[in-house]
Amino acid sequence: MSSSSSSPRLPEIRKDYVFNRYVIISPARSRRPSDFKSSPNPNPKSPNPNSCPFCSGRESECAPEIFRFPKEPPSSSSSSEWNLRVIENLYPALKRDAEPSGSDPGVADGGGVLPGFGFHDVVIETPEHGVRMSDMSAEGLGQVVEAYRERILQLKRVRSVKYVQVFKNHGVSAGASMAHSHSQIMGLPIIPPTVSIRLDSMKEFYGRTGKCGLCEAWSKDILIDESAHFFSIVPFAASFPFEIWIVPRDHSSFFHDINKEKAVDFGGLLKMMLLKLSKQLNDPPFNFMIHTAPFELPNDHLPYTHWFLQIIPQLGVVGGFEMASGCYINPVFPDDAAKVLSEVNLS
Amino acid sequence: MSSSSSSPRLPEIRKDYVFNRYVIISPARSRRPSDFKSSPNPNPKSPNPNSCPFCSGRESECAPEIFRFPKEPPSSSSSSEWNLRVIENLYPALKRDAEPSGSDPGVADGGGVLPGFGFHDVVIETPEHGVRMSDMSAEGLGQVVEAYRERILQLKRVRSVKYVQVFKNHGVSAGASMAHSHSQIMGLPIIPPTVSIRLDSMKEFYGRTGKCGLCEAWSKDILIDESAHFFSIVPFAASFPFEIWIVPRDHSSFFHDINKEKAVDFGGLLKMMLLKLSKQLNDPPFNFMIHTAPFELPNDHLPYTHWFLQIIPQLGVVGGFEMASGCYINPVFPDDAAKVLSEVNLS
Ligand SMILES: Nc1ncnc2c1ncn2[C@@H]1O[C@H](COP(=O)(O)OP(=O)(O)O[C@H]2O[C@H](CO)[C@@H](O)[C@H](O)[C@H]2O)[C@@H](O)[C@H]1O
Ligand SMILES: Nc1ncnc2c1ncn2[C@@H]1O[C@H](COP(=O)(O)OP(=O)(O)O[C@H]2O[C@H](CO)[C@@H](O)[C@H](O)[C@H]2O)[C@@H](O)[C@H]1O
């Protein structure tokens, strides 16, 4: 590590203007950035490949299919010929048949309770059990992105769905209960807390600077890589060591406005980031999540909402300080992490 | 479990008016409330009792002492006669010698960077290695509470310290790196994100209802236990299964206004809650944190700020959905958890 000298850098408190939170960057709490490795952190042990319901050939053991790629007439949708499937979650956190009637089902003010209506789907990213997302081609990842997009557009047609959260858990300590590569899509009747905070914070930044906080996020110091339409950085006020954001170059509020060409371009950069994390940090458990805009975004919010994907490798444990304060202690300076990741040799 | 019949209750989305967040209560995601057990989750293996710097007799292996109970003249403060010690953290996240000069050191707007100034202390709660907090007497816990109070009052005198976060990590998966019973105190030059959100949310609730949200939190349905000056509940919109709040009966903004009698009363209820969690959930890892008010609280905020202690047993893993949305999926209805906990037999 070029930037690690004998004495570590002094700690800093940085403000994240996207999520409106502070982070403490404190290298004294940890090893040198280049020494970070995840402890061997395997995938969930069950189900094994011989009984995994997400494997091709076991479609009947899954909750109902929503669609598959390549598209097939419904008659043949029970076949085992597919690259990707979007299915209902067998143990959904929210129920899709509980849509509230009435004109404004979203207001929990007053009593503080809403019925648990919503959609909870699973994207099976590959028919093969042992294939990780980083093993897939850019086109394969592009297809996953297109599946997200298509499902979001379907959910957009449901009146009560206000926001869609796409996320992936990889590895036990990132929450994964299934080893077979998959991600999840939740259609929510509320705008989640983090999303409201983000929109308010981006608005405040725009009001103060006249600029979109994400358009401004590009900086040589924290840049990892770039593609035709996207760039990847370790954000200036990253809450987690080796946290990565993949950001569209051109200002764009809605993830679901991505087109086929951009989806493949995005897939290529995502694959590269996952490979770099895997190589540098010893196949760490990770989460990724897409941060987009609520469906009913007033037009005057468009200039300061900008979607992006956040990847968080799980390298430590969250303690009481973070849970209490919402302020994370990150032991690795973002520019140090970006330098390490930009230099990972994938050949 | 009386309330668990053959079919689980339907999911609900609940609004937490204290932290301004939604939670999804979704029993279908899990076992019956009474079946919850933490997987055997021991304390950190190192250091062992023969090399633990927090044990009495090894004071010299610790960072400098700030004070101890019982109070002693400085000349004898290197002795091994003590019940409790407050010491500096050997690997502090923030530096106590970096106080910024200038009149308003707290504003990170603009550049988005503040020097990493602050205090990071450790409370060694007992001289004995194997004693857990729940093994200690109400008076012993009262002494821990008084140590928090005394240290907070010291930090209040430092101009740049705006908020003090007290927290405890117990067990590896709650973040503890030291097995010997301890907690931590951080004096911060910022008001952390969760605190700002909480104050705004309590203000909004007060504006709408004319009441303090915590004074209103008492409810028979979610009550666990009560003492002379405090009550303990599973909050109506708990984010975590078996989450507990201990709340002062009388409206009180600042934890550091607690007196000796109340400290022992509080210690007794805290001990009981930790024992109940330990017995019911198999000595789970947990965090607790004190949520109080910033030092420079304008007088008109007093009616709606109300301190409390939050205990979160770590029974599951946080996944991408929670990290992305700030919305937690809690598989146990708060009233079911409260009923289980109220009925735990400690004799
Ligand atoms: N000889 C000595 N003298 C003085 N102090 C000593 C010491 N030896 C060790 N210490 C300090 O004692 C503290 C023990 O704290 P904990 O075990 O509660 O968790 P830790 O702070 O390591 O991290 C957990 O809590 C923090 C804050 O929530 C999270 O950031 C982190 O991820 C999580 O693992 C450490 O902070 C350590 O620096
Ligand atoms: N045969 C089948 N057909 C259809 N679906 C099936 C199925 N068998 C299993 N499933 C579903 O597949 C999903 C797999 O998801 P993950 O492994 O990413 O994590 P999970 O949702 O279990 O929980 C993690 O993510 C959530 C959300 O972040 C956290 O609440 C939680 O604590 C964390 O462990 C599960 O939701 C499961 O219900």
From TrEMBL, chains A, B:
<feature type="active site" description="Tele-UMP-histidine intermediate">
    <location>
        <position position="182"/>
    </location>
</feature>
<dbReference type="GO" id="GO:0008108">
    <property type="term" value="F:UDP-glucose:hexose-1-phosphate uridylyltransferase activity"/>
</dbReference>
<dbReference type="GO" id="GO:0006012">
    <property type="term" value="P:galactose metabolic process"/>
</dbReference>
<feature type="domain" description="Galactose-1-phosphate uridyl transferase N-terminal">
    <location>
        <begin position="85"/>
        <end position="192"/>
    </location>
</feature>
<dbReference type="InterPro" id="IPR005849">
    <property type="entry name" value="GalP_Utransf_N"/>
</dbReference>
<feature type="binding site">
    <location>
        <position position="129"/>
    </location>
    <ligand>
        <name>Zn(2+)</name>
    </ligand>
</feature>
<feature type="binding site">
    <location>
        <position position="55"/>
    </location>
    <ligand>
        <name>Zn(2+)</name>
    </ligand>
</feature>
<keyword id="KW-0862">Zinc</keyword>
<dbReference type="InterPro" id="IPR036265">
    <property type="entry name" value="HIT-like_sf"/>
</dbReference>
<feature type="region of interest" description="Disordered">
    <location>
        <begin position="30"/>
        <end position="55"/>
    </location>
</feature>
<protein>
    <submittedName>
        <fullName>ADP-glucose phosphorylase isoform X1</fullName>
    </submittedName>
</protein>
<keyword id="KW-0479">Metal-binding</keyword>
<dbReference type="InterPro" id="IPR001937">
    <property type="entry name" value="GalP_UDPtransf1"/>
</dbReference>
<keyword id="KW-0548">Nucleotidyltransferase</keyword>
<keyword id="KW-0808">Transferase</keyword>
<keyword id="KW-0119">Carbohydrate metabolism</keyword>
<dbReference type="InterPro" id="IPR053177">
    <property type="entry name" value="ADP-glucose_phosphorylase"/>
</dbReference>
<feature type="binding site">
    <location>
        <position position="180"/>
    </location>
    <ligand>
        <name>Zn(2+)</name>
    </ligand>
</feature>
<dbReference type="GO" id="GO:0008270">
    <property type="term" value="F:zinc ion binding"/>
</dbReference>
<dbReference type="Pfam" id="PF01087">
    <property type="entry name" value="GalP_UDP_transf"/>
</dbReference>
<feature type="binding site">
    <location>
        <position position="52"/>
    </location>
    <ligand>
        <name>Zn(2+)</name>
    </ligand>
</feature>
